[in-house]
TrEMBL record:
Subcellular locations according to the entry: Membrane
PANTHER family: NATURAL RESISTANCE-ASSOCIATED MACROPHAGE PROTEIN 2 (PTHR11706:SF33), SOLUTE CARRIER PROTEIN FAMILY 11 MEMBER (PTHR11706)
Keyword line: Membrane, Transmembrane, Transmembrane helix, Transport
Coiled-coil regions, chain positions: none
One Gene Ontology biological process: iron ion transmembrane transport
Name of this chain's protein: Divalent metal cation transporter
Transmembrane segments: 72-95, 116-146, 152-170, 177-197, 229-247, 280-300, 320-345, 377-395, 415-434, 446-466, 486-507
Amino acid sequence: MSEKTNTPNRKHKLIEYANGPSLEEINGTIEVPKNLSFWKTLFAYSGPGALVAVGYMDPGNWSTSITGGQNYQYMLMSVILISSLIAMLLQYMAAKLGIVSQMDLAQAIRARTSKSLGIVLWILTELAIMATDIAEVIGAAIALYLLFNIPLVIAVFITVLDVLVLLLLTKIGFRKIEAIVVCLILVILFVFVYQVALSNPDWGGVIKGLVPTADTFSTSRSVNGMTPLSGALGIIGATVMPHNLYLHSAISQTRKIDHTDEADVARTVKFAAWDSNIQLSFAFVVNSLLLIMGVAVFKSGAVKDPSFFGLYEALSNTSMLSNGILISVAKSGALSALFAIALLASGQNSTITGTLTGQVIMEGFVHMRMPLWLRRLVTRLISVIPVLICVLLTSGKSAIDEHTALNNLMNNSQVFLAFALPFSMLPLLMMTDSAAEMGKRFKNSLWVKGLGWLSVIGLTFLNLLGLPDSILGFFGDNPSTGEQTFSKILAYVLIAAILALLAWTIFDLQRGNKRYVEQQLAAAAKEANK
């Protein structure tokens, strides 16, 4: 298996027009020998799934899963399982779209919609990526503070320097980037396996929790201000993120494919699905371990502060831990240090994938390209601003106030994901359902189509259902009656706007698909008349 570059040696401008293959510098650069054994072929195709899996175990997932375990024991395990299965289905369709159509999701949407809608969807997706980046900034800055006692303001600025790491990675080849991401995932996995193994959880309760019940989505039982439904929405919202669909549809094209050979295309789709499902299974394990930590590592109800600061403190506070083995290890500081290391690894992984995704949507929606390091620098500097403001505004207050403010900022930033998710899922499903786009062999089968629509409608409904509470969260823990009324009105206005924009997107996509079919028929007729 070899890796080569497609890009000729020429001087690039900082910002230039781009309307070529997705991520042109790495598109089709990795050759995969034929006639290998199943496992050797799988290894050759493995890598893109790991970059996608990163988004399913980023810092935004941590507090929701651990708090869910603290409040409801293993009951929300089923939500993690359902979210992971939906993720596998959506990522399979995203990879298939890229491999078969030779366009990433952004390019495919833009090719079927008007310029004005393309710009609107680009801005919406950029906001979602920046919201995700805020969580990464907070996670990385807190990890640096906890590990090296670096003041938070300085730690936030240090996170900007990860652009230098990205600049180095762009020089070593995409296959090596995939390997680095896998290593960082293994670090995260090891940390949580070790901590959960020491806690000796109730595995019977874990398995029982994988089966959803009527109580799983209940709104009547509240623990520490969280209902099962709000806990489930938090886990779902932190798990399925729009940028992963754009990313996967692009990096699934890094393997060299003979598109004139349908069997070669089918083989690539098959092994891309294997790679994705295996890596997302690891993400499911990590998220499950986080919830199990909330149940088994800590005493029930012990964690009052679900922020990263609170979890770090809890892992070094022997009065909060559940058994003697954990207490003896915690005295050495190992549990809390490992937690901070995993947090730093998670943030760095998300840096790589977030930057690639930003380039994908910029090229796809508005046909503009800039170097990855510049793209990263611009996005990170914008994302740093609200974090710095939050740190500076709370610098004169108590540590608890500062920690709470950062945690609230991270949680509230995720509200944009509820806006952007339907606008990636719905076009993805519509285009992979289309024989005109995918061909008869690769369009979604009946069962994939049925589960896909169920997932898209269900996730969109749940995200919109949780929107009023998400907006209310911006007003703090004790909002006034006026603030509650305002948040509801604003939520309903935004929901109406989302539905209207979805209707516009569907109309444009259907019209674009019809135009595409007509072009195909005209081309076929012209060929027949020759």
